[in-house]
TrEMBL record, chains A, B:
Record family assignment: Belongs to the TrpB family.
Cofactors, names only: pyridoxal 5'-phosphate
Keyword terms: Amino-acid biosynthesis, Aromatic amino acid biosynthesis, Lyase, Pyridoxal phosphate, Tryptophan biosynthesis
Keyword Amino-acid biosynthesis found: yes
Main enzyme class: lyase
Function noted in UniProt: The beta subunit is responsible for the synthesis of L-tryptophan from indole and L-serine.
Gene symbol of the encoding locus: trpB
HAMAP family linked: Trp_synth_beta (MF_00133)
Source lineage: Bacteria, Bacillati, Actinomycetota, Actinomycetes, Mycobacteriales
Keyword GTP-binding: no
Complex formation: Tetramer of two alpha and two beta chains.
Protein name: Tryptophan synthase beta chain
């Protein structure tokens, strides 16, 4: 094991293939269903929204899919990302654990999201799409897609939840710098948005409404398609570059396989991107990590949701997906980790959770902010609120090692920096960050909205 | 010449020595003078403010100074920084030039400033300093010093110009996360601040006032010292890690020495850090780059200032330094590149400019913002307003190459990202960024304040 703090790879070591876990599972995940017919959706149902290559990737049974050269050429701008040994954090904690974090905040958009935004924009451009639409909450996904579209010369139109549009102008500005058009959602330019504005002129919007608007515009124009930043199989697939690089970096560092892999989950894509390649190795007998998802206590789809068919959006426009869900009517309390405030979960991860391939815990946000500040003081990097959930669980595990004396190897994904979350940190320093208790009746009420199929 | 976009180095290649250009110059720069006696200041004059090792470095005649292991161990968190070949920008411009940029925004504080903040904090901690004071405008330097002090367990107290303290809270928050105490300047807790508040209760503050406050507090306590983020010889010295790494990266890429090196200048430290090692090579007959400083037209110390002894601060507390200056009373118009709004210039760089070792140009800020947006669309990274001045000059040079057909090799330092400058970009996108004309009578009036010696 070497003495480095930061294990870098040359860009010639960017992975050339994405890893698809589905053929390695004992059974495939249940298919998405058409809400009208109750039958599995086919490529023809998805073609108005997605290019054929992404539809093919969504249902592929191949273990590996080649990454196009044109995607690699954009990945080069920030990949391979560094794997850090958190030596200064270990020292601050006084733990015998060896802590590693894979840092995705070096991307232009500052998170792991460009790993999938770039191939999505590429395949769209290659198949003649002239414009991509999408929704965004605080703006991490919207800014990643804006960046990606700029690389391939296609237009990008983003519906941004009005509350964030008004209160968090900086990521909106970032999207515009990269050339995207940004609308506050609900907007008057779609039927879905206009209807809501007619009833509620002051609507603060929601991700569900923004999805409806983006989908409506994409469906109406043959040269416009829609892009989603998490949840779907092809998104998780693209994110496996994270774990593939980390495997190479563990080998380069002479480190044994991790004992615990920890990631935060909203839709699940950064967590999956990190652990899936390590799971492949585990299934092949190389290493035996405990794999742990960390979700916000305010939106605990794994730990308190149920595994059932539900809609991906609030309005009920999407196919039905079997997943861990709190119900598509569930509105999480306003925790600052906006990227984790999603009522459902990746269907693929949900299936794997049912198979017992990983575990899940939930964290309150105050503990997560405290972990982020401890981390920032030791390691310098200021984490986004989302990965601070993973860091809280890493620190918890490291402290267990201190108590037991075990020299465990811990690995997490630091999926983004917190430079656009400074208002949240300001509130934390002012003691103005509440924890939220989520009552069972509130979950039960939201679950009552589940579709009967 | 290889095909990479990003030339990375392993952390084992972090430079082990800083390069001191002074012994390679035909004559040394004129010494700073004591304002009372008119005699050169000695170590005893500086000892209340700086640790002895930094005073030694300030006047050293050695070509190389060893970097302590404890500093290297913190540099490892982000160094070596990547050298990028701006292939996508070249393509967007259609230029035959080969454009390289050394990216310092990967540091925890997001700029080159930690390169000197870290050794300054280290030497202070090693010599028993318990608290460092400093001033900061928009907060780049203050946040770098806050980060560095956190690494060595010493306190950090920052006087932040009130206008920025109120209008730019995010870097203030960043400093606090790293454990620093941040005061709005003028503050009632110093005599200098209290006096100004008594006369002007609504004073927006200035860097000059903030320096006076930080120096006053440091001078009054034997365990408190003061740190400066640019201008001084030891600061430029520490920044040479930028150029030393770039030299290795040019060699690793199989690229010939640059034809043009371009950097932005406020106090001069990032520009010097990039070009000094290349100048050493040039003086030894290896390469012959044109070296070009770019300053804001609103604060043109090289191109319109005079070379004379002046104070480093507005209040006249510092030693007199011979430098290019617009007069210590000069208040630049409020351009967004806050890091370049300094009335003077590094005395060492000023001396070298007089020796004809580099040239200088001035740019209006609208051209610089336009360059930054062109760059961000092509390369992804959003530049801070300061290096956008260098980018404007790079694009100008690349366009000259397009006209002439010359395949020049251009090198610049992208000294920081713009994540904390989004309000400025928002104004630029709204068409709300003015250029400022600086009249000669205004410069003449400020120069009338020069001390007679």
């Amino acid at each position: 094991m070497d003495e480095r703090t930061k294990i870098t790879l040359d860009e010639s070591e960017i992975p050339r293939r994405w890893y698809n876990v589905i053929p390695d599972l004992p059974e495939p995940p249940p298919p998405p269903l058409h809400p009208g017919t109750g039958q599995p959706v086919g490529p023809e149902d998805l073609a108005p929204l997605f290019p054929m290559e992404l539809i093919r990737q969504e249902v592929s049974g191949d273990r590996y899919l080649d990454i196009p050269d044109e995607v690699i050429d954009v990945y080069r701008l920030w990949r391979p990302t560094p794997l850090f040994r958190a030596r200064r954090l270990e020292k601050a904690l006084g733990t015998p654990a060896r802590i590693y974090y894979k840092y995705e905040g070096v991307s232009p958009a500052g998170s792991h999201k460009p790993n999938t935004a770039v191939p999505q924009a590429f395949y769209n451009a290659a198949e003649g799409t002239r414009r991509l639409t999408t929704e965004t909450g605080a703006g991490q996904w919207g800014s990643a897609l804006a960046f990606a579209c700029a690389q391939y010369g296609i237009d990008c139109e983003v519906w941004m939840v009005r509350a964030s549009y008004d209160q968090k102008p900086h990521r909106r500005t970032l999207m515009r710098i990269w050339g995207a058009t940004v609308h506050a959602s609900p907007s008057p330019i779609t039927a879905a948005g206009a209807k809501i504005l007619a009833d509620h002129p002051d609507s603060p919007g929601s991700l569900g409404i923004a999805i409806s608007e983006a989908v409506e515009v994409a469906a109406a124009d043959p040269f416009t398609r829609y892009a989603l930043g998490s949840v779907l199989n092809h998104v998780l697939l693209h994110q496996t570059v994270i774990g593939e690089e980390a495997l190479k970096q563990f080998a380069a560092a002479g480190e044994r396989p991790p004992d615990v892999i920890i990631g935060c989950t909203g839709g699940g894509s950064n967590f999956a991107g990190l652990f899936l390649p390590f799971l492949r190795e585990k299934l092949a007998g190389r290493g035996d990590p405990v794999i742990r998802a960390v979700e916000p206590a305010a939106c605990p789809s794994f730990t308190r949701g149920i595994y059932a068919y539900d809609f991906g959006d609030t309005a009920g426009f999407t196919p039905l997906m079997k997943m861990h869900t709190l119900g598509h009517d569930f509105i999480p309390d306003p925790v600052h980790a906006g990227g984790l405030r999603y009522h459902g979960m990746s269907p693929l991860l949900s299936h794997m959770y049912e198979l017992g391939l990983f575990e899940a815990v939930a964290k309150q946000q105050r503990e997560c902010f405290a972990a982020a500040v401890t981390f920032a003081k030791a390691e310098g990097i200021l984490p986004a609120p989302e990965p601070s959930h993973a860091l809280a669980a890493v620190i918890e595990e490291a402290n267990r090692c201190t108590a037991s004396g075990e020299e465990k190897v811990l690995l997490t994904a630091l999926c983004g920096h917190g430079h656009f979350d400074m208002t949240a940190y300001e509130r934390y320093l002012a003691g103005d960050i509440p924890d939220f208790e989520l009552s069972q009746p509130r979950i039960d009420a939201a679950l009552a909205s589940l579709p009967r199929i």
